[in-house]
Amino acid sequence: MNKLRQLIQRYWPFLSVLAVLLVIIEWAVAREWVPKFIIPRPSDVIKTIFTQAPQLWTHTQATLLEVIVGVAISIGLGLLIGILLYYSDFIERAFYPFVLISQTIPTIALSPIFVLWFGYSLWTKVAIIFLITFFPVVVSVFDGLKRTDEEYLELFRVMGASKWQMFSQLQWKFALPSIYSGLKMSVVYSLIGAVIGEWLGGSEGLGYYIRRMSSSIKSEGVFAGILVLSLIGILLFNLVGLLENRALKYLNTEKRK
């Protein structure tokens, strides 16, 4: 209850504005000032979520599977490559431009290529998610390691610390805030990648559900899918934030010692 009270106290301006907007939209659509196929009544969106809960849950499971696999691969490779970029000047000069180039090409332009390679399978969506989420992880790891205080590094050298001890006890902890910032961006961007992949082709996922509702001109279904995606994004963002708070709390405890 205390946490809920704190959240309400912190976000009451947002909740107040949101409530006013929902009331205005509900009233405007009910008075037929705005056509329902453009913006549905918020009450109809909520009703759709409850009436189509089994379908939405099935599509949500498919999207979550794509997100989990894609983000897991991007985190694993992103951490590895970010560390290699930091420790090897040759690898940085050879591969960092490729990391940058991967973000200059529109994802929607590469999506048909992934469809040719993997078909309309899970791996097409995973590849798109990886392409979108890989960059924030690599950059956050690389930049985070570079932020290590040089005085602390010199102190560890004087004390005869090995490279592994310097990395695990010093540089990694300095990089954690940056890494978690990159992870927050990645988990949110992963939903965009999943929806793009599902929109292009497939028979399941929230992107597919939204496309199907759109083709049937069911705006309440479209907004229901969007609302579920938004809630998933908020949950994933806060999950990473929870992990970040625990990690930084541990760091603060270490500093007090």
Automatic annotation (TrEMBL):
Residues 60-241 form the ABC transmembrane type-1 domain. The chain crosses the membrane at residues 12-30, 67-87, 94-120, 126-145, 189-210, 222-243. It is found in: Cell membrane. It is a multi-pass membrane protein. SUPFAM superfamilies: MetI-like. Belongs to the binding-protein-dependent transport system permease family. This is ABC transporter permease. It comes from Globicatella sulfidifaciens.
